[in-house]
Every structure is written in structure tokens, then in C-alpha cells.
Design goal:
By secondary structure, the protein is mostly helical. It has a domain of 26 residues. It contains 2 helices and 2 strands. The protein has a two-stranded antiparallel sheet with strand order 1-2. Strand 1 and strand 2 form a beta hairpin. It is rod-shaped, with a radius of gyration of 42 Å.
Length: 102
């Protein structure tokens, strides 16, 4: 059958005991599956992983850069607030004639 190019997957082996009693049917496809050479799956492309890794590294670098810029901005705001407080104190002092009230 197979030698003639027919598909034998729909057929089965009939298993009998020594007295000829039917024990079970073994599908041909299942029996032949044990004798087929194992084929390896084709290797998966690593390009998506490489791209994801590169994107993650770039994102991490950008996040670190943004964090540094935020820190600089916060320091600048704090320095500006100190200068404003000092300027207001100086202006108030000048308005009072240069003397401070207790």
C-alpha cells in the first residue's frame, strides 16, 4: 500500500492475543510516528528579541536622561525661589527705610 504511494493513515493494525481474540486497534499513523526520524523545528529568528532589547536599553537611557533633567529643573526652581525670597526681603527692607522691624 505505502509502496504504491497510497495514504495509510486511515488504516490500523489489529492487535490479537495468541488465541486470536481482538485486543485493540493501533492506528497506522500512531505506529509509524514512533519510527519517523525526529525533525528539528527551524530556528526562530532572534531579530524581535534583539530589537526589543535595543528598544529597552534606549528607553532606559532616555528615562535616565529625563530624570537628570527633572533634577536640574527642580534645583533651578529651588534656587529661583531662594533668590525671590531674598529679593523680596531686600525690597521690603528698602521700603522701610533700610531698617528692619522686630
Amino acid at each position: 500500500m505505502i509502496g504504491q504511494g497510497h495514504d495509510a493513515s486511515a488504516h490500523c493494525f489489529e492487535i490479537k492475543d495468541t488465541l486470536g481474540r481482538h485486543l485493540m486497534d493501533l492506528p497506522f499513523s500512531e505506529a509509524m510516528g514512533r519510527f519517523r526520524p525526529l525533525t528539528r523545528a527551524p530556528p526562530r529568528s532572534t531579530a524581535p528579541l534583539v530589537n526589543a532589547t535595543a528598544t529597552a536599553r534606549a528607553s532606559h537611557g532616555l528615562a535616565a536622561s529625563i530624570a537628570r533633567e527633572i533634577e536640574v529643573a527642580l534645583q533651578t526652581i529651588e534656587q529661583t525661589n531662594r533668590l525671590l525670597r531674598r529679593s523680596r526681603a531686600t525690597s521690603a527692607s528698602a521700603a522701610l527705610g533700610g531698617c528692619r522691624r522686630a
